[in-house]
Records
---
Amino acid sequence: MKKLINDPADVVSEALLGMAAAHPELRVDQQHKIIYRGGALKAGKVGLVSGGGSGHEPLHGGFVGLGMLDAACAGEVFTSPVPDQILRATRAVDAGAGVLHIVKNYAGDVMSFEIAAELAAESGLQVRSVLIADDVAVPNSRHAAGRRGVGLTVLVEKIAGAAAEQGRSLTEVAKVAGKVTAGGRSMGVALTSCTVPAVGRPTFELPDTNIEMGIGIHGEPGRRRLPLAPAAQVAEYLLDPILADLDFTGGPGVIAFVNGMGGTPLIELYLMYHEVTTILARAGVRLARSLVGSYLTSLEMAGCSVTLLRADHDLLQLWDAPVRTPALRWGV
Amino acid sequence: MKKLINDPADVVSEALLGMAAAHPELRVDQQHKIIYRGGALKAGKVGLVSGGGSGHEPLHGGFVGLGMLDAACAGEVFTSPVPDQILRATRAVDAGAGVLHIVKNYAGDVMSFEIAAELAAESGLQVRSVLIADDVAVPNSRHAAGRRGVGLTVLVEKIAGAAAEQGRSLTEVAKVAGKVTAGGRSMGVALTSCTVPAVGRPTFELPDTNIEMGIGIHGEPGRRRLPLAPAAQVAEYLLDPILADLDFTGGPGVIAFVNGMGGTPLIELYLMYHEVTTILARAGVRLARSLVGSYLTSLEMAGCSVTLLRADHDLLQLWDAPVRTPALRWGV
């Protein structure tokens, strides 16, 4: 295992110290591994809490700030945060308008957020949840009943965050988040495995001549292992199941997101984005907005995922709304 | 070679197509491989042109936009752009106040920019150049007489870009760029090699238990090969030569930049940044600003570099000034 780390047991807490130092505008609760938006709560704003295993940076902590999350709960690498941690974050960001939990569909995350939501409700807080299950690769998997939550998470956090910032009610913010989960689909490909620091060896073996189509963000198996292929072919492998699953034609178009898995350089992501635009043009799908970069990673895994979201005018104005977080920033 | 590419010969041009599609606010001259800031020139603003081999994305094209570069010339992977290309970009961004060339110290880049500057001068344009040579690792190298230009490039482009945006003269912008090059130092480490697409095999071999200290951004040899060490030790290996080379104490402090080489995930970069802050505190160096992320890469090389820049109040306000580019954006 070749990584820039000290003791594998300290990776998450030491990375949080680095985040705190690099982003003084955030408040990092080191003891409970929670990253908060700095400054006072905005009275009447719906609070947004997300979280999950570490190893997917900048998700979720890098999306805390104006126009996106109010708090992110970090678990150990590829390990769910615990209910107490989520409950603490939920209480801290409640500004009288309730709190939305943004949850990726993995058994551990779902359970922790459900328990936290119940405990919060018992103490009188209004909590709603949105479950993200956008991965078309496999119907069920090692860690999830139903589809896994992957790249769409970034878009849900951005769009729901903007809706909350605009002063919409908890019901309205949950509704817009639901519109994103209903209209978004993703699929990923791995060129290499990743290595969990505490394990010390690659999560899976992938021969030099193979790629894993439909990879999960923790290295869970995909739908099939194929010979390494040109990028144009890989883009088809990714988009065909997405386009078969939902009609993306019509309306103002899609938000297209090409995401790096951590070990793939930006030059390849731009190249893949070009292939995506070519396929979408052929399929009659209009491009409204795009995002290209490594925003939801799997440690140092090489590969990428593609996410498409059916947009409407409200989603687009929420997408365009100001955001100021470590990893996503525009308009302010 | 396992990459998301088609024909190795088309990597740069296809990635540029992707950049053009993802960033309609830029203007990409596909034929000449030049990325321009969109919109009309601002009369009387000094033009900023940089460029170099591709494979370092987001550098340089990702730094084109308000408050940073006006044009970036892309060579093939790890290959200098040609004089005609630079001349064309220089002419295109001249708005009557002259043009500054930002050049990393590699023989090919230096030669191409020098010829372009001479040709531009012959046709009556005012051109000044700033040479970046911040790498303390080795006094000379395979591709450079004198120190190599590495991570500091990002800081020069940001700060000179802000100075130009504020309406300073060519002499003044060149002077501020010179202040950055005089006050900045860098060093990098590689955990793995990278593979140039047209070559198809790793640039160098690095055993599983070794790291290369002082690596160049094209995989040029560093100062020594050492056993893999904990991050705290690696951070010392990087910072000791930097701190020995220039006095960074006093004043408002430093801008500290931890840069990923392409294949290292953000969680490790934040962890490394924590180690950097610990060493700087011990050395009595004050932290004024920071930047953590993969901004000047070497394809999919794993590793990182650390850059320190002695700041003063003018440099800090230029650093904080609004910037809107694909890879760096704040305040606007």
---
Amino acid sequence: MRRKDSTSVFDEKSKIIAADFFRDLRNRICSEFEQIENTQNQTRHRDMPAGEFSRKVWHHADEDGTPGGGGEISLMKGRVFEKVGVNISTIHGHFSPAFRAQIPGAEENNGAFWASGISLVAHMRSPKVPAVHMNLRMIVTAKHWLGGGADLTPMLPSPQDKTDFHASLKECCDRHDPKYYDEFSAWCDRYFFLPHRDEPRGVGGIFYDYIDTGDWDKDFAFSKDVGNTFLDIYPKLVRRHMNEEWSDEERHTQLVKRGRYVEFNLIHDRGTQFGLKTGGNIDAILMSMPPEVIWE
Amino acid sequence: MRRKDSTSVFDEKSKIIAADFFRDLRNRICSEFEQIENTQNQTRHRDMPAGEFSRKVWHHADEDGTPGGGGEISLMKGRVFEKVGVNISTIHGHFSPAFRAQIPGAEENNGAFWASGISLVAHMRSPKVPAVHMNLRMIVTAKHWLGGGADLTPMLPSPQDKTDFHASLKECCDRHDPKYYDEFSAWCDRYFFLPHRDEPRGVGGIFYDYIDTGDWDKDFAFSKDVGNTFLDIYPKLVRRHMNEEWSDEERHTQLVKRGRYVEFNLIHDRGTQFGLKTGGNIDAILMSMPPEVIWE
């Protein structure tokens, strides 16, 4: 019999599979992004050194100080990627009583949880290259589920990028469930929206949460595919635009657009709120902040 | 007999006195800040034209579209004041049902409210000159009260500025109630604090709210004194430092410090939340955002 305050009767092997995949994906992403840095040839920044990821380990503790896992932030400030952060974490502990009511299954076991995930935000030097966000996560309370998604934020209109990004994610979704793409792209549009500006954050992508069909292997195959699809399509968009020229006006437009990104993340984003309320590492939570921003 | 959904039985003359004072204070502040722009003589920016305020009128409407007053944003982007906004507003209407519970007296009259105030945020070009925030407000529901305050955010350590700013506000408080300064400076320290960073936003000042001693004229004399005291002390601090030289490193420190300002305002500030939840004008609400910010 399990203790009342432990997480669900759930195959511990799945936790290991998920955390291992997130780590491996992180490694492949960082390697690919460093390769992009090496091949850049844009006028303004070709004389800068190619960026390399640096890594910072952090440890999680509950509000009462009880330790429970941690994470690693990989951060690169390069000549293509002005600032890109890739964070992986695997933490466990107890949600605070005030927070439990918002989390499925958290009140049934005194707030005990286990969570693992990867989160990525890239802010690019070129306003011609869209910013991007990708996240995959597995949460275990008395219930367990998978969530994630990827979404694109062009700084200037770029319909072809939007089309290709969505087509790639649609193919990915269709490999797993014909209903997924419509449902998850609509969810993405609803989620990444700034009501106070009455405008979307970007051009969407997919967003999903609370996935538990009863077949974890099948569900996780979808999350893996989303991660691998991201790693396939986003570098293509970066390479498509990274050597193009841009004007100071386009750079200005980019820095103003980044302000909207900040507003969304600090006012609305659930991931940010989740991090702040679970005593998350502040560097990891605010890794998503753009390097340079303008408010007019 | 008054209708159930109107604001309290409260001297309408006081509303006019308050709104008129806020407008007059706005005019005097803008005039003083423009004078400062004209006398600047700092190496980096002396060739820029002196800043002048531009004004933008906005109108308030409740969520259902019912109009109810509005405000004026005065904005200056100058060579001393990189971005300073002074907003005055006088609005009325009904708080949304969800918001009423948080506002004293708002549930007793179906959310009817009247509010008038002045709000100011100044972000300076020089990292040697502290940023500042000042706000005065009068709210009427079934109850009525005054609130406000002023607080200083130096970008580099400047103990003399802190000392003088606090001394000035303490003298102001002491003219009205010997308990005010201790109470309101402690409230300011509690309020302008970033729990997620475990650091204060600035070096404090005073913050007060829900003032209603039963003698409105006396209470409002205090708010007027706070406004006039601000207009006396802050320009002195600006003139003290505005012609000093600064380094690129000091500028960088300033831009990073401004990120904390953004985090506070978007994550914690009640005024921002109040504005967003009452359908406030987005330009007026986010007028406080710094013009240029860095997250490292």
